[in-house]
Write a sequence for this structure.
């Protein structure tokens, strides 16, 4: 005797997830959908009002700030991605909505029995007019003998979305002596614009490809110049314009070769912001941190690397806190993974 289930067949697929944030009349943002399947898990705590909510609007952008900022944590069962796992996440933001994506620790990539068995993670994020996403996760931590490929694809409706997103990776478990002992690591970030006719145009593509031997045949660890963290921060949109300018200005103020003062003149007393800059630059030296910032087709692209994870984490957190506008718009929760 066979048993026929009264329930319909599930159309969901392993590793697939969906986040849909909509604005209900008159201006209330709600998470219409938060769905996921093993090994992916999504956790959405209660939304919070932005710190600047209720203040008198100073410009047109502030006037349409939503009354709530939603946050979703991206998790995996077991705390990492097992060999052969595949995660596929779709995110859709309605007009003028705000979303913070976080992790609950570094995304660990577990050992694969063969380099051909690659773990994968893919995110598709669609942003409508004046919507904004902040994605400042913990870094990816690939263990020794892993193969991993991920992509983050952002779609801006008529180039109107706002994003501040970070993609960074570490050399592995330093406490166990791991130092870029991976088979392969690939990460791709793309930003596309979509017009009214549905035609797509590529605005930005940023790739990081690390493999064990490379074209030179040298071990990966010997090619990384003793750095254990590499990362990229991508910033775009009027909501983050002040943050973009801050990174560009601070990069322009970095000491340059040939710009050293040899003591021929008395140094003037530093102003408060100059003193903070000087102290931060001294910490960068101690942490072995290097970084650059460039304006690329309307984006500000920041590249950074450091000897240890905490060096990059502290630097990025301090830069964002010193500038202040991101925290004013999204609150302290947005940088939870940088603390």
């Amino acid at each position: 005797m066979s048993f026929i289930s009264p329930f319909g067949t599930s159309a969901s697929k392993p590793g697939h997830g969906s986040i849909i944030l909509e604005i209900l009349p008159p201006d209330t943002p709600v998470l219409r959908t938060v769905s996921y399947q093993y090994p992916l898990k999504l956790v959405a705590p209660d939304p919070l009002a932005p710190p600047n909510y209720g203040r008198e609007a100073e410009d047109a952008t502030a006037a349409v700030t939503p009354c709530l900022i939603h946050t979703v944590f991206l998790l995996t069962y077991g705390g990492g991605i097992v060999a052969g796992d595949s995660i596929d996440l779709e995110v859709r933001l309605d007009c003028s909505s705000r979303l913070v994506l976080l992790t609950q620790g570094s995304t660990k990539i577990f050992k694969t029995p063969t380099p051909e068995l690659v773990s994968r993670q893919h995110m598709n994020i669609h942003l409508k007019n004046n919507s904004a996403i902040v994605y400042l996760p913990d870094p990816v931590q690939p263990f020794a003998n892993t193969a991993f490929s991920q992509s983050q694809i952002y779609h801006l409706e008529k180039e109107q979305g706002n994003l501040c997103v970070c993609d960074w990776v570490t050399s592995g478990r330093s406490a166990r002596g791991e130092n870029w002992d991976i088979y392969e690591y690939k990460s791709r970030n793309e930003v596309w614009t979509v017009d009214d006719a549905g035609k797509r145009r590529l605005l930005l593509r940023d790739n990081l490809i690390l493999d064990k031997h490379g074209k030179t045949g040298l071990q990966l660890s010997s090619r990384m110049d003793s750095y254990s963290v590499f990362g990229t921060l991508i910033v775009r949109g009027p909501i983050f314009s002040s943050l973009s300018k801050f990174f560009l200005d601070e990069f322009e103020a970095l000491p340059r070769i040939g710009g050293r003062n040899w003591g021929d003149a008395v140094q003037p007393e530093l102003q408060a912001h100059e003193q903070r800059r000087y102290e931060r630059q001294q910490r960068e030296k101690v942490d072995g941190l290097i970084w650059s910032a460039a304006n690329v087709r309307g984006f500000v692209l920041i590249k950074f690397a450091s000897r240890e994870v905490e060096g990059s984490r502290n630097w990025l957190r301090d830069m964002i806190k010193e500038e202040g506008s991101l925290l004013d718009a999204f609150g302290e929760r947005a940088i939870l993974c940088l603390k």
